[in-house]
Amino acid sequence: MCRIRPIDAGGPNVCAFLDMLAVSEIGARMLAMTDDGYDVIVGSTPQHPSLMKSYADHPRQLVRLPALGIKSTAAGRYQFIERTWDGLAKSLGFAPRAMNFEPQSQDRACIELLRQIKAYPQIAGGNIEGAIRIANGTWASLPGAGFGQHENRMSDLVRIFMARFEHYRSPDFSNVQAGVESTAKAET
Description:
The protein is mainly alpha-helical. 41% of the residues lie in helices and 3% in strands.
């Protein structure tokens, strides 16, 4: 579950999308066995987890992934690469390397990135499939990304989104402020 409150993220749609993106990037099993993915370094598997020791900064660790023929610095719940993280920190008003990598910082940075790539209005408006299509140029795990890595199916991601959306809009969810409604239009 994302750490930012729905009211601060822009509503339950946004939090549900963040959770769906984390499942897509990290996998449900890794999310369950870590700090909800916030501490995961690229290349981690349930059998061989590689986790950050501190949230003081992006770990800035270059990992070789021979099976994919790439090297990456991706880390955290949304698998930010180092240069993307630094650009987002600057966009959010932080000096270079001054923004911590705490879970709420990762959530805020992901929301900022979704705004920059123009997926945020689609998410807020409930066009989840449209948002996924926009975001697939940023996250390799999304359908149609074309990075040569595993891509999840649209129907699976929409199903995950809908389940998380129902969680966030539930009256039992304490972080949802009364009167906040969503316009989720995604179909299962």
